Model the fold of this input.
Amino acid sequence: MKFVIQRVKNASVEVEGKIVGKINQGFLVLIGITHDDTKETADALIKKLINLRVFTDENYKMNLSIKDVKGELLLISQFTLYADCKKGNRPSFTNSAKFETANELYNYIVDECKKKEIKVQTGIFGAEMKVNLLNNGPVTIILDSNEI
Done:
């Protein structure tokens, strides 16, 4: 599982010309799910996400978590995070989890994040989405379940 986390001033996601999710200060999180991911994998990344201290404190040090700053989450599924570009110029997406599995785990992640007393917005799983963001920093962190 991969989370690409962008610290944002604001972000939104649009589907078919309508805004379906919108946040102020917080994290835009692109979520990639592969075949062997489980709820336990998701739990480990969620814990790291919620406790990640990349918001600045009064001394301008990255020392505060999303909960500390009352930040918000915009969670977007993105199967292309598991693109395999080793052969040729057209990526293969066979490393991405099957639709049903990925959808179930994505919804699990959304539900678990909501339990953390953080405002959570989402895109629409499987839809073509337009994502707009104002990256703050820029700060972009990649969490990979193979590395935690």
About this structure: Residues 99-114 form the longest helix (16 residues).
